[in-house]
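Posted in: Structural Biology > Protein-Ligand Complexes

Title: Requesting predicted complex, magnesium ion in pocket

I'd be grateful if someone could produce the 3D structure tokens for the following input. Sequence and ligand are given below.
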Amino acid sequence: MPPDADVDRICQAFGITPVHHDRVPFGSGLINSTFLLKDRQGDNDWLLQQVNTTVFARPQLIAYNNYLAAEHLRSHHPGYPFMRGRKTVDGRDLLIDPVHGTWRVFPYFRDTVSYDRANSREQAFSAAQQFGRLVRYLDGVYVGAFQEIIPGFHDLSARFEVFLDSILKAEPDRMEKAGPVIQFFRDHAGIVDTYREMVNDPEVHTRITHNDTKLNNVLFDKQSGEAKYVVDLDTLMPGKALFDLGDMIRTFISPAAEDDPDPDQCHINGDLFEGLVDGWMSEMTPLLSPREKDLLFWSGQMLMFEQGIRFLTDHLQGDVYYKAGRPDHNLDRAKNQMHLLAAYTARKEELEARIEQLIR
Ligand code: GN1
Ligand code: MG
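-- Reply #1 --
Done. Output follows.
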């Protein structure tokens, strides 16, 4: 956090009077830094966020894609609650400060709540329905106009190459600790082969997708318990619908925290799985091709594998990408994805049968 006087200046640029607000760190994002500006007198709370420009080298692209999406939604689905940021007093989406970097502001809704873990089938259904609805509502937009905010974001083939390269360059002690985890992901490289076939298959469509569909990227209404807003639209860009489904499967179905390396914590909850697939399909079914339907279970494997090698690569490269709060934090995260992938794959037959039931 920059010195108070500078944060005050940043707030003022967005037309927010800093003396009326308390500032507290907010959320569990691994990339950007977010602060809640709590209004001492009324309910005008805001989220002030510093964009990590190492990861988002061209943050203007986020604003651009969000603008295109908002315009499409405004004309085709006028009631849709698309989350927009607050503009600066001079009408910009971002404040680019020469010393303290890139900032933006979002409204904070006191009547909503987010969760790191799903606790009922209904909750999983409702969140997945919202993620599916966003993609369905954006169906028909001109995909080619959207920018690739982070190039190759879900390019598993490229990410696997980077992972293999990081093994060759890693410090010996980081390498040694990671040995069994590296071996596990090498042994599951068949997932990368399927990715290569999938991504070149014309039956697997490119759409505008969210690309970061963690459960905590949905805000639930505190009163009704229904999912209400999709947030974190930083990676709203061309992608495959399967990336969104896969990341939901990855983040909804196990009670273990994303950095918990204990295999015994990785239970797969079949009801949460079924609920989320059901909720997502309630929006997406009319858009899906037979080939996409064949890959629904696989999408979960893909995202667990991808996230696993991303954490592991970061461990091998010396923790340069994700915020790390303790030694071996990224290795623990990679272990968590490894156990999750193993536990999920072990339930393949049963979970695929559940998908079949839903499709029929
Ligand atoms: C990052 O910052 P956050 O938590 O929204 C990452 C996602 C990962 C996620 C893992 C731009 O998201 O891709 O799935 O961590 N975002 C980026 O928790 O790399
Ligand atoms: Mg994100």
